[in-house]
Amino acid sequence: MDIKTDWNEVWKSMMESQSKTSMNTDCANMWKRKENARRFWEMSLENRNRVENTISGMALKPESRVLDIGAGPGSLSIPLAERVRHVTAVEPAEGMMEVMKENIETYALKNIECVYKDWEAVDISSDLCPPYDVVFASYSLGMRDIRASIRKMVEASSGYVYLYWFAGETSWDMHSRKLWPSLHGCEYRQGPKIDVLYNVLYNMGIYPDMKVFPFEHTNRFENLEEAVEHFKPQYSAFSSEQEEILRFYLQEVLEEENGALVLRGWSTRVKLWWEISAF
Question: To the nearest 5 percent, what fractions of the chain are helix, strand and coil?
Answer without folding.
Answer: 45, 25, 30
